[in-house]
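Reviewers of the previous submission asked for a worked example of the structure-prediction workflow described in the proposal, so we include one complete record here. The input consisted solely of the amino acid sequence. No template or homolog information was supplied to the procedure at any stage.
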Amino acid sequence: MNKRAAIVISTVAVALAAFRLSQTTPASAATLRFSGPTSSQPLALSGDDAFLAAVNPDNNTVTFFDLRSDINRKLAEVPVQVEPNGVVMTPDGLKAYVANTVSGTVSVIPLNIRNGRISLPSKHIIVGAEPYGLALTPNGKKLYVTNSRSESVSVIDTATDTVTKTIFGVGPEPRGLAITNDGDADDNDETVYVTQFLSLPISGKVDGRDDAKAGHVTVISTATDLVTGSVTINPLVDTGFNATGDALARIAPGDPANPANFTFPTGAYPNQLNNIAIKGDFAYVPNVGASPNGPVRFDVNTQSLLSAINRVSNNDAGTVNMHLAVKNQTNTAKLFNTVPWAMAFKHNANEGYVVIAASNVVIKVAVNPVTGAATVQNDPADSTKVLQLPVGKNPRGIVINSTDTRAYVMDYVSRDITVLNLASPERVHATVASSRLPAAGTLDDKIQVGKELYNTSIGVFDPATAGGTPIVGRMSAKGWGACSACHPFGLSDNVVWIFPSGPKRTIPQHTDFDRTDATRTTMRPLNFSAERDEEEDFELNIRAVSGGQGLIVLADGVTQETNVANLRPLANASRNQLKVRGVNAWDAIKAYVQFGIRAPISPFSKTDPSVVVGRALFISANCQQCHGSAMWTTARIRYTPPPDASLVNAGGELFNELRQVGTFDSTAFNEVRQNGASPLGANGYVPPSLLSLFAFPQTFLHNGSALSLDDVMNNVTHRSAGTSGVDTLSNPFDRAALVAFLKSIDAASVPIP
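From that input alone, the workflow returned the following structure tokens.
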């Protein structure tokens, strides 16, 4: 190389380094830094905006993209471990870290990405149970990991790639992370915010009320890696949507066809806190608001909330209902903002973008830097409607580059990345595939179709005739509801809803079928009152709870079956259904529930002495009479639907599968039907599955009346049901051991016959 060439190369290298420093670090800092706060996401930008990494949870890979010159080119898809859900890249671009939820590890991927080299993982760091969110301190020296099932946060030193501390006491199911950027090169004064995914009961409130629970965000200091506090996000007093009655007040609903009857204000409490983002003195948490009090109607159950936290005082700064912007728009073509899941802010403006997972859009909000108030923005090209940028299927994450010109959205179900041009008017710039989809006609493809329908509030179905127009929007009314709105990850929002049969806590659907049966044909009765015997029976929920037209049609393949009496108690599995890519819609949803929903992994050791003792006590107390078998419940569908009339009582319950174990109290405040009448329950309830019971620790029993498993065990009638009323668990130490065993149960546990 001649001297002139060497000088040119050296000058280019210095210029590139100077450019990178100007983009990622203050002039006074000695190391590269991200230019703003960091946040956990399923995709990540390099410090210079040149490269993007995105996880592919269903394919156990992470994909890297070249963004330079807007090329948006896929570079490589790197295998990691099982179910990656979070990813970060260090500010210098030399490493990527991936949280593998099922494997319980964080993969370390060495990068020389600017020179075209991306390596296989060099290490898998063992952390807690089900790591989910990852966030780096702004200088990249420390990595924080939420262990969603261990109720802990792991701290990793990125210089040595070792866990230096595990922080406990962060609350149940930690998921989202955000870290401030206060300009200290050593990050000695940063703050870490951690969301607790499910809300917690408020003392003195009864489950089923719209103000029964509150959201919580844990605060950690990077200086000490200790919990320094917690912020409570309070219920929203008035959602802006009125009901026609009040179940808990025993006021029956009026005629929903008469607008004059909508006079009862409804509230909602924040729930499903998956993500958190920081802007100035405020942190923002998109979440699914729960409004469980009856009467049942699509627009007074789940809400689209954005909650603000004042970071100076660590107090609730207010919550807005993002559904209201759609309600109030004058344009009659309305799509509600269902299941807000993640958000990101511009660096140089008080504007942010919220990912709406079930509606397949991204919306824009403006925030007041003084009060923290957020306002949903209208479309600048059409002021009569909310700005809703269409993205891929089931978007779950978003990042924005440092110049605020591009946003990148991870679309989970369609397995692609949507690139948004943020110059006004905002628009879709490109869509890039991230990972392969299942081959058409396979079981995996059917599961994928089911996952799509389960997670959407819209639904795009095949035309009724070849070459016709696709059928759109049958899953809910104006995109209001989705299965995932109450069953995040296919599990439970842990809300007690006041339904037509009475109070019912959402049951996680990983318990619907025998998970040890390869065909999973063995099924339990559905709902606490055994009112359903097929997945297809939830056609009624799509119609009543979500306000949709449903998926069961007449022989023409498009006309809705309007006679609801024909949908129950008849068999629905063989009825005419809408199709998606040639697959029957309900067949696909059933396949997803059977094979696509994973049981949470318990952090408790099966060999712990207290667990071993507890298992023996479980057997000696004959708990397996109700909670035995591989399904951890003995309740079964023992016939081919529909049931013989002799198996169903006047309340529509499969009464032979019900058990009376002292868990029904007709005098309880929340024991009421959605119309204000007395509830079902005197005949008992279906024994729920104990599989992964530990994952829902806030409330137990059908009406949430037990606030812990200890409370459940204090019910003498319940704990002695298997021994003909003889109490073998009167010793509190024995009950504690039994609770330890119950918390250890997951898919790896040996079933009890």
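The longest helix spans residues 3-24. We consider this example representative of the routine output the project will generate in years two and three.
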